[in-house]
Amino acid sequence: MATLTGLFVYPVKSMRGIPYPQVRLRATGLEWDRQWMVVDAKGTFLSQRTHPRLARIVPEITADALVLRAPEEPPLRVPLTTTGNQVSVRVWKDSCMGVEQGSAAHEWVSRCLGRQVRLVRVAPDMQRNASREFAGTTPAPLGFPDGYPMLVCNEASLEDLNQRLGEALPMERFRPNIVIAGLPAWAEDHIDTLTVGSVTLRLVKPCLRCAIPSLDHRTGEPSIDPLPVLRKFRFSKALRGIMFGENAVIVTGGGAAMERGAHCQVTFNAGFGTGAATPA
Asked: CA distances (Å), 88 to each of 36, 38, 98, 112, in order?
């Protein structure tokens, strides 16, 4: 038995996350998660990898608007009912459709980042799915996350990493949607399904980490970099990357609410607990 100890939503891709005590699950993941993103003139997404100032922008979802706040700028209100031109945009290799959020939004975010950019929202009829190679043949619809609807992280794994680092990094550095406790460190490598009430998630692929965890999650400034330590024991030769956290797809429970503190039923892949090694 595990416990759900954290729920985080990132309304705008690569901007600050919002912790919630309770949040509803939608077909594409947690409600409002990665429903907006910032793109350049070609429609390609921007992230903290190349634009760390995104970390300084704090989103809020109100009853009728996405509200963005940033240092030295008045708050920006983007109505949830905003309609605009549909444009072709790109997340990695995926071609997507976005709805432009208006000149005021474009100008506000451009001032924050110091370059001309646009703010777009997921188009109502956009069709994008997670990779079948890992998610399987049942479609797993997406908004604007990198590749999967949700990211699950384990408190014990962070504690183990922090002991190796000799520093205490917060979980927010790794931008999870769901945080669980009550399992051994790195047990998430072997989880098949995670069930919270009527919601069941299937963990399908380790999350390969980029440089974002090396940035202060509140400022975007360079900070303690966990990747050199993680590389020593969490590098996957098969996936060619450093693993922390597990990407998940939704099996059941669309429309249900998830609540912090809830108990989680966990099923493991065959072989866990019988000496199975962490994937390499």
From this structure: 14, 13, 6, 23
Q: What per-residue confidence (pLDDT) applies to 164? A: 98
Tokens of 198: 């009527």
pLDDT of 271 higher than 80:
no
The sign of the dihedral angle between the CA atoms of 190, 236, 136, 130 is positive
| Global pTM value | 0.95
Classify the phi-psi angles of 132: left when phi > 0, otherwise alpha if psi is within -120 to 50, otherwise beta: alpha
Q: Amino acid identity of 233?
A: F
Instruction: Give CA–CA dist 253/178, Å, rounded.
Output: 15
* Among 175, 45, 8, 32, CA closest to 120: 45
Could you give all domains of the chain from N- to C-terminal order, each with its CATH number? 2-29+130-268 (2.40.33.20), 34-122 (no CATH)
Cα 95 versus chain centre, distance: 19
